[in-house]
Amino acid sequence: MTTTLEDLLNIDGVTIAFEYTPDGKCIAYKSKKNVSPEMAAMITRFCSLVTMTFGTLAQSFTALSENNWIPQHGWLYSGGDYTVVLGKGGYQGVFVETAKANWEELLRLMSVQ
To answer: What is the CATH topology of the domain spanning 5-110?
Structure first.
């Protein structure tokens, strides 16, 4: 099943859902708030950087530890009132209000669990 941005935006607490290319170019986004294309582009550039960093760390750690950390499935960061969750290899993501999130549904659809 392919998870659409609309599917993700319908999850409790999600404020923006987005997809981007490995180089950080925003492919698409949907938001419950007024998010400009420039803001969406900045979000995807920053998320792309983190995805690339985790990919590099995972490759190095796999080689050094002899434990398999690749391929990357996704990542999550939580701070303040919000959490960012990336799935689909790190190229589809959401910003979610942490206290309102339906974590089970979100992680299932993002294929992170």
So the answer is: Beta-Lactamase (3.30.450)
The pair of structure tokens assigned to 66 is: 């002899």
| pLDDT above 60: residue 110 | yes
- Asked if 105 and 113 count as a contact pair (C-beta separation under 8 A), the reply is no
Distance CA 4, CA 79 (A): 25
- Single-letter residue type at 57: L
Q: For residue 19, what are the β-bridge partners?
A: 28, 92
How far, CA to CA in Å, does 24 sit from each of 27, 54, 97, 99?
A: 9, 14, 23, 28
Give every CB contact of residue 83 below 8 A, 6+ residues apart in sequence. Answer: 76, 77, 95, 96, 98, 101
| pTM for the whole structure | 0.91
Please report, for the chain, the start and end positions of each structural domain, with discontinuous segments joined by +.
5-110
Using the structure block, give the residue that is written with the tokens 């939580």.
78
Q: Is 60 helix (H, G, I), strand (E, B) or coil?
A: helix
Alpha-carbon span 1 to 4, nearest angstrom? 9
